[in-house]
Amino acid sequence: MITVVDYKLNNLRSIENTLRRLGHEVKVTSDPAEVRHAQKLILPGVGAFRDAMKNLRDMGLAEAFVDKVKAGTPTLGICLGMHLIFTESEEFGLHKGLNLIPGRVKKLPEGLHVPHMGWNQLHLKRSDRLTREVVPESFVYFVHSFYAQPDSAEVTLATTDYGFDFPAIVHFENIWATQFHPEKSQHVGERLLDNFARL
Amino acid sequence: MLAKRIIPCLDVKEGRVVKGTNFVALRDAGDPIECGLRYSEEGADELVFLDITASSDRRNIVADMVRRVADSVNIPFTVGGGLRSVADIEHILRAGADKVSINTSAIENPQLITESAERFGSQCIVVAIDARRETEQKSSAKVFTHGGRVRTDLDAVEWAQRAASLGAGEIPLTSMDADGTKAGYDLDLTSRLSKSLQIPVIASGGAGTLEDLYLGLTEGAASAVLAASIFHFREVTIPQAKAYLRERGVLVR
Questions:
Q1: What is the 3-state secondary structure (H, E, C) of chain B?
Q2: I want to staple B176 with a disulfide (CB 3.0 to 4.6 A). Which of A2, A18, B132, B160 is the partner?
Q3: ipTM > 0.85?
């Protein structure tokens, strides 16, 4: 059973449907008690960092989620969900994140088309259970204006080149996170989600 | 590197796919979910659904279609047509669309761009522009609203820049002179728009051949090409288009 944290900022049908199509049980919830009983967690997200943090705190989800992740529950952050897991974000002012991976969320550099939107390639830095059977240089779907930079280079599992290399997948202890949307990345995304579900 | 995108556009009315030629005559070409699935399986990078339903129950008809598409298609899709308020936009995003496309309502109420971008993020607010050149010689193109029926005094490039500064995340530019002609995109206008904006521009209107797609992405400098009838009637398939572009050195998925 995979528990998808719903902090009421997004539509979560795509993630839910993709996991179900792959044959996995899914529970989408806004209830901190259910988060505390999760076997696996997904923190999804599209939208503004500040609003997301506010909702997570107001709904009592932040504390439950952080406790559960620190207890070792395999966790996957997606896009904004990746950003939220980091220490802090520079998105429209400086905002504190959930601080589960040391690092900072930054704006994509000047001179690039922002948002970075579309299909871009994964450069795998090392092998990992999450990226098993993912062909190097596979295309996945990105939509973002900010990116997460871990303090430790060791954390980055795959990078993507958008005029500069930024972390596309990170792995730190029991936490994995993707800057792209696996639920919108067709077969490659399905492979990653299935790998996560089978961890 | 970021791949160039190929986007089939499906005009839908009362839950069925139709395609107008020069925005007038309509032809029926199938079920939107089946079409969307087939395109995604063939390698389309995104889908656009433009709704032209006139029914008073339009809101529910469209939301229902969006839900069904989101349940079966696992590539991003945009929904446009008749979205006039933040509440309309929220309704469609909540039903599962990745982006919404606004056009006339953005011109009548530019604040709608900012309000919805602040609420849902720029990445999902697409501001579509229909433009027509004043005369053959003139370099300026004016923006039209209401599906191309009403002329405004807005210059296409100026309006695009303003829309971007208000929070638009992407601009599909439809050349109404070229639309339905299959004589190719308006490369000059597309390229001027692409080069003057920091957000992606999508070439639309006029694609008739594989070379048109290629030129839209190279000379037109567009991030993506959008086309309808050439794909719907199988004159060109997505795999053919991808192979053609790849051979000519354009990075595609």
A1: CCCCEEEEEEEEECCEEEEEECCCEEEECCCHHHHHHHHHHHCCCCEEEEECCCCCCHHHHHHHHHHHHHHHCCCCEEEECCCCCHHHHHHHHHHCCCEEEECHHHHHCCHHHHHHHHHHCHHHEEECEEEEECCCCCCCEEEEECCCCEEEEEEHHHHHHHHHHHCCCEEEEEECCCCCCCCCCCHHHHHHHHHHCCCCEEEECCCCCHHHHHHHHCCCCCCEEEECHHHHCCCCCHHHHHHHHHHCCCCCC
A2: B132
A3: yes
